[in-house]
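Q: Is it fine to ask for two folds in a single conversation?
A: Yes, each is treated on its own. Send the first.
Q: Here.
A: Result:
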Amino acid sequence: MGGAQNPFLIAQQQVRNAVAALGESEELFELLKAPAHFIEVQIPVRMDDGSLRVFTGYRSQHLTTLGPAKGGIRFHPAVTADEVKALSMWMTFKTSVVGLPYGGGKGGVVVDPRKLSLGELERLSRGYVRAIWPYLGPDKDIPAPDVNTNAQIVGWMTDEYETIVGASCPAVFTGKPLSMGGSLGREEATGRGTVITIREALAYLGLPVAGARVAVQGFGNAGQHAARLLEELGAVLVAASDSRGGIVCPGGMRVADLIAYKQATGSVVGFPGSRATDQFGVLTADCDILVPAALENQIDAEVARSIRARVVAEAANGPTTPDGDHVLAQRKIFLIPDILANAGGVTVSYFEWVQNRNQYYWTAEEVNARLEQRMVASFRDVVAMAERHGAYTRTAAYMYAIHRIAESLRMRGLLRAPARQALRAAAG
């Protein structure tokens, strides 16, 4: 299974493919191939035993001409500079594909948060903000939770920023606790958005949701909510995994029972009635819908050749490598690419930002209805682009996002029209 490929190079290749498919110039690729700003910081933290540890942190801002940067902060021992750069690029295209007024941002700290006490985790979270706060702001860069971060961590970060600037500023972070200006519906938004696109994909393919078998690689926040919401539509969870391993249960599992078991034991491994497997076994389980909801580079060519699902919905960022993409396309497996499938999280983060700035808060029903409308429209726009150009859905999603970005850059005078457009304009 994958894991060694450089996500930054993968993101660049995806951009190049879409730029070429649109007939755009090399100028557009040059504007999009790397972050506008990249910050690396060292974060000193006093540990509980009195020792001092220094952690490395990053923040990447990809294309800030479109609006403030937007994207999560992850705490993970495998965080790298190139991973954060790639994730910020994917965020630019994700916000564009669902029509949000943002550029892409992403942050990370090289740390295993499971090895920190609660106090150490808080000091690290606040230290990260102290290191990068001049680059943040509601009109500059608006972080959110990501892998191994949550509403509590974002709450600490928000409080630290407000302490530094000496003013209330809830719109500087999203994914906050409700008591600090968070939005109803935010916690489940990524999973809900993924399920909306799965439902639309199955309808497009003429397949029923009821009875569909689901495998979820990465039974964390997004994976759990996706599994639960699919179950509500009549689907059946047959395989799941987390960082400790995977399980398969061909007869199906009740999602609530599996969530409760993981909360009690720390893992899905050992769930009663299941058999143990590894990540490969979950990705290649006998199912109709595969939801990769873990980390990057999980589906390479070897895995893609063994996938049995009819639909792959990328709740994670960058889970499929380019050679894996090639195999999925050859096998005509319907892919809902990450920049569309998991855009529900950033969409409801946008709603939170809007509510914070207006100091007027919506009901959960309003949030979910607005998310539904935006995700359905974006899915249909991407499918229309794929049909119009005979493109695979990932390339089509990038084409749709980059076309919108290109038009904005032209209106600003930063990008010339491609040669064929210029010729048409000259011909009158």
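Q: Second one now.
A: Result:
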Amino acid sequence: MGDHDDLRKFITDLAVVHGRVVLSSGREADWYVDLRRVTLHHQAAPLVGRVLLDLTADWEYEAVGGLTLGADPVALSMLHAAPSGRSLDAFVVRKAGKAHGLQRRIEGPEVAGRRVLAVEDTSTTGGSVLTAVEALREAGAEVVGVAVIVDRGAGDAVRAAGLPYRAAYTLADLGLVA
């Protein structure tokens, strides 16, 4: 099996939780995909980085990140999995700017004037990743696209916002029904 198949197995074995839940979008579902069980796992995290780097290999970007918390381990996995010779920075977009210190909304290396990739672990409505995109654009970054590990339906909203969108897995890939 390759990285893509191996990561899918980690997701189905560790992250898919069955039972009634309320999603961050406010929608209810009979199952939940808790990708932090995968993105923070010692064996799965490197796979996350490699799979998403492969998924976006034809996009040119210098930094990767998104809205905290779902995007943080995804971006770090990609940073650490980047091949030797490729400079890839990671950043974190806060939900709101800090009221102290440097009062930055985006933490990490400067994104102004840089091509960046917005990521998320999973997305249902696109709300979180589009919030990150808005903050990145306000900071002067050029967002080249959005990539997620698992798409729960956000693709249309992200594309409607004028951004290319890719997901490593669909719900069908995981044997789940929307």
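Q: Anything structural to flag on that second result?
A: Two points. Residues 88 and 146 are 16 Å apart (CA to CA). The chain has a mean pLDDT of 93.
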